[in-house]
Amino acid sequence: xxxxxxxxxxxxxxxxxxxxxxxxxxxxxxxxxxxxxxxxxxxxxxxxxxxxxxxxxxxxxxxxxxxxxxxxxxxxxxxxxxxxxxxxxxxxxxxxxxxxxxxxxxxxxxxxxxxxxxxxxxxxxxxxxxxxxxxxxxxxxxxxxxxxxxxxxxxxxxxxxxxxxxxxxxxxxxxxxxxxxxxxxxxxxxxxxxxxxxxxxxxxxxxxx
Length: 209
What we know:
Blueprint: H1 2-17, H2 32-46, H3 56-69, H4 74-80, H5 88-104, H6 108-117, E1 127-139, E2 141-147, E3 153-158, E4 179-191, E5 196-208
Antiparallel strand pairs: 1-2, 1-4, 2-3, 4-5
């Protein structure tokens, strides 16, 4: 079906646009086709082994595969939105709205995948911070909290497995009260609870000193 194939690129461009465009609340809920597609995509990404997805390209490819598994719904979605499939700007908007729907329905697997898709290659260089391990906060994701020499708290996002993560899987933590070194990279991510994009420090490794 040539029309379905034609839609592949605009949909994927829209997903990538999610990394740079602030998501605004939709004034209306999704239509029945969009809801069916978003439910299907959420089920698909939930089945993914995210521990094996480490790069932006891998994340985009994984989502692409899920979209293509349900490509038969895309023409119906375009009709529901009353747009022409040849209109790439309109199709990009549909892709963004579809991503918004996945966020609004709190599809955790898609949120995690979108963090990887939004990774900035320029932020790939790791930074290091030293401090005393204090606790782990659970706010949708896990955050490792440390205190610096001045007693100020700093938190770091635990998004996926990293060297040293086994020491923080369950209490009592081996690092409790100890000095640690956290290596991290900065990411700009969409936080559903805050309903906006924010820069966070993703942990790439922790060493107990």
